[in-house]
Amino acid sequence: QVQLVESGGGLVQAGDSLRLSCAASGRPFSSYSVGWFRQAPGKEREFVSAISWTGGSTAYTDSAKGRFTISRDNTKNTVSLQMNSLKPEDTAVYYCAARAASVSWSVYDRSNVYAYWGQGTQVTVSS
């Protein structure tokens, strides 16, 4: 198993940037694909971005393309999400999640295939 801890959230204004980090412990982080999900008040959890265990494949929800960048450093057991040009609609609790690399990459946007989740970090974007 793997334990995940998110950090980097905060209160910013529209147009600002934040960099979220997901730190892992337990089994080697290189054994897992990692996804970022978010949940806003009154809304269901939604997919934001994902990265494969090798870092060779990445995916983004349409609203994140061109603004967000996901990356990983397996030597440091971390995955980061660089968020630029933030908008009020990005306001949510952001969660880091991990799944075994043996799970098909094609289901990267399905929350129910991720076995491990962090506690979440709050991102608030004011207009």
The strand count comes to: 11
What proportion of the residues form beta strands (DSSP E)? Answer: over 45%
Q: What coarse outline follows from CA principal-axis ratios?
A: globular
Q: What is the typical, i.e. mean, pLDDT?
A: 94
Overall radius of gyration = 14 Å
Unreliable spans are: none
Gap from first CA to last CA: 40 Å
**Count of individual helical segments:** 0
N to C succession of SSEs: EEEEEEEEEEE
Determine the oligomeric state from the structure: single chain
Helix content: under 10%
Structural class: mainly beta
Q: Summarize the main sheet.
A: 7 strands, mixed
Characterise this structure.
- The chain has no helices and 11 strands.
- The protein has 127 residues and is mainly beta.
- Strands 2, 4, 5, 6, 9, 10 and 11 form a 7-stranded mixed β-sheet that branches. Strands 1-3-8-7 form a 4-stranded antiparallel β-sheet, with no helix packed on it.
- The relative contact order is 0.32.
Helix-strand layout with pairing:
Blueprint: E1 2-7, E2 10-13, E3 18-26, E4 32-39, E5 46-51, E6 58-60, E7 68-73, E8 78-83, E9 92-100, E10 116-117, E11 121-126
Parallel strand pairs: 2-11
Antiparallel strand pairs: 1-3, 3-8, 4-5, 4-9, 5-6, 7-8, 9-10, 9-11
In short:
It is built from no helices and eleven strands. It has 127 residues and is mostly beta strands.
Characteristic key phrases:
127 residues, mainly beta, 7-stranded mixed β-sheet, 4-stranded antiparallel β-sheet
